[in-house]
From TrEMBL:
It comes from the Bacteria. It is a multi-pass membrane protein. Residues 183-299 form the ABC3 transporter permease C-terminal domain. Its main location: membrane. It holds the Pfam family FtsX_ECD. Forms a membrane-associated complex with FtsE. This is Cell division protein FtsX. Residues 56-160 form the FtsX extracellular domain. Gene3D superfamilies: 3.30.70.3040. It is found in: Cell membrane. It comes from Streptomyces oryzae. The chain crosses the membrane at residues 21-41, 179-200, 221-254, 274-297. Belongs to the ABC-4 integral membrane protein family. FtsX subfamily. Keywords: Cell cycle, Cell division, Cell membrane, Membrane, Transmembrane, Transmembrane helix.
């Protein structure tokens, strides 16, 4: 009998405040969709970092005869065979080094022609203008400073370049977009909370006679508050459901059927990342309105 009464009160409350309930559902859905999208974006950035950082190398460019007059690091002339051997020997001694690849000037010229075959500058270069280099794969890509310190300014070395730094601007942009999404999400959560509080207030005011009678017959505070809390939780649950649908549709249409077709070089997140986020979205969608309603009702429905 009590459960039936609570359910009937929930139905009455939802019908009386249909417009505000709809606004709560929409705001909760948008804020939680943004929250889930931000979590997935952070996961995507982490996945990309792990994927690309594992592939990047440190390049030690060696001086050639053309650098002697133009680069102060190569003022003593082109690298000698002895200097190349010493550099390779010292690289092999470092614990942070996993693999060492040597690229000759001819190989560098061939790779350049393959990568920039449509560039008008490609035909103006000759193999002797290209630099020899050691491409070093590190066990931990963040240990770049070890090579930077050991080989920068060394005779025969023109430059030590960390390819990881070339990706930092991209990751900084993605992190900035993620922060912007989090700020919008926070704003939407505040709007959702305000709507929930106002909806509960209006609902409590419209049913003040019923709650007054329940006080007189000795109903407990929790029993009086239960219909209002459940109304807010149900609205939040529906909003969370819509947020989950938006995340699934975003993964299916935006990533699987568009971005993966257009950008094949990026390792995008899988369905496992989305599935891990969905329960959190549902939990927040239910608990946030319920807790907000509980604290709002402590003021308006004191027994």
């Amino acid at each position: 009998m009590r459960a039936q009464f609570v359910l009937s009160e929930i139905g009455v409350g939802l019908r009386r405040n249909l417009t505000m309930t709809f606004a709560v559902i929409v705001s909760v859905a948008l804020s939680l969709a943004l929250a889930g999208g931000s979590l997935l974006a952070r996961e995507q950035v982490s996945t990309m970092k792990g994927y690309w950082y594992d592939k990047v190398q440190v390049s030690i460019y060696l001086c050639n005869k053309n650098d002697a007059s133009s680069d102060p690091n190569c003022a003593k002339g082109a690298v000698t065979q002895q200097q190349k051997n010493e550099i390779k020997t010292d690289l092999e001694k470092l614990d942070v080094v996993e693999k060492i690849y040597y690229e000759s000037a001819d190989e560098a010229y061939k790779h350049y022609k393959e990568q920039f075959k449509d560039s008008p500058l490609a035909d103006s270069l000759t193999p002797d203008q290209m630099q020899e280099s050691y491409r070093v794969k590190l066990k931990d890509p963040t240990k770049y400073q070890v090579l930077q310190t050991a080989f920068s300014g060394r005779q025969g070395v023109q430059e030590v370049q960390d390819q990881r730094s070339l990706l930092e601007n991209l990751f900084n942009l993605l992190n900035g977009m993620n922060i912007a999404a989090l700020c919008v999400m926070a704003l939407m959560l505040v709007v959702a909370l305000l709507l929930i509080v106002n909806t509960v207030r209006v609902s409590a005011f419209s049913r003040r006679r019923e709650t007054g009678i329940m006080r007189l017959v000795g109903a407990s505070s929790f029993y009086i508050q239960m219909p209002f809390i459940l109304e807010a939780a149900i609205a939040g649950l529906i909003g969370a459901g819509f947020a989950c649908v938006l995340l699934v549709l975003g993964k299916w249409f935006l990533i699987n059927n568009w971005l993966q077709q257009k950008i094949v070089l990026i390792n995008f997140i899988g369905w496992d990342a989305v599935i891990k986020v969905l329960p959190l979205i549902v939990a927040v969608g239910v608990l946030m309105p319920a807790v907000a309603a509980f604290f709002t009702l402590r003021k308006y429905l004191k027994v």
